[in-house]
Amino acid sequence: MALKPIAYVQASWHADIIDHCKTAFMAEITTRGYRVDEVEFFSAHGSLEIPLITKKLAKSGRYAAVCASGLVVDGVSTGRIRRARRAPRHRSDRAGTEVPVLSAVLTPHHFHAHAIHEEFFKEHMRTKGRELAAACVSIIEKLSALDARGSAPALHRDP
């Protein structure tokens, strides 16, 4: 369906939880008309490395959108998070790429590695994966319509 593929970046830490986001994303994206081979996967060491990778992928101009998933648990030092936030942010188009970058990186404050929390976050990541796919398709379609019309798409207004 897409003229350009979608890039999907996933942190490798907590992959047993984050993989549920990717699986749900792929299931949802295919129900929306995309093929599995229209999504290219990339790995980041951890969630704090995602912004740099997504920026590089967006700047390449090769992708219709860049999506990311990860989990930053409360054991990560505040100083390290502050330093990472000074890096180019991936949630908007500050680099001027005109490529949407969407994120399903969760930052739970109290994460404990036991069955109850792990199952809760696995289910939450499935939800986020479906939402990420829906948002990805929506923005790609809106940008495509904008390119085709050469003007701004009509904004949805609540009644």
Structure, described:
- With 159 residues, the protein is of the alpha/beta class.
- The protein has a single domain, classed as 3-Layer(aba) Sandwich (Rossmann fold), CATH 3.40.50.
- Helix content is 45%, strand content 16%.
- It has 4 helices and 4 strands; from the N terminus they run βαβαβαβα.
- The chain has helices at residues 15-31, 50-60, 78-86, 115-149, and strands spanning 6-11, 39-44, 65-71, 101-106.
- Strands 2-1-3-4 form a 4-stranded parallel β-sheet, with helices on both faces.
- Strand 1, helix 1 (15-31) and strand 2 (39-44) form a beta-alpha-beta unit.
- The two termini are 32 Å apart.
- The relative contact order is 0.20.
How do the strands line up in the largest sheet?
A: 2-1-3-4
In the CATH hierarchy, what is the architecture at level 2?
Answer: 3-Layer(aba) Sandwich
* Share of residues in helices: 40-55%
Number of helices: 4
Largest sheet properties: 4 strands, parallel
| Residue share in β-strands | 15-25%
Q: By CATH's scheme, which homologous superfamily applies?
A: Lumazine/riboflavin synthase
**CATH fold naming:** Rossmann fold
Number of domains: 1
Query: Could you tell me the number of beta strands?
Result: 4
In the CATH scheme, the class would be: Alpha Beta
Termini separation: 32 Å
Helices and strands: which structural class?
A: alpha/beta
- What value does the Rg take, in angstroms? 16 Å
Mean of the pLDDT scores?
Answer: 82
Oligomer: single chain
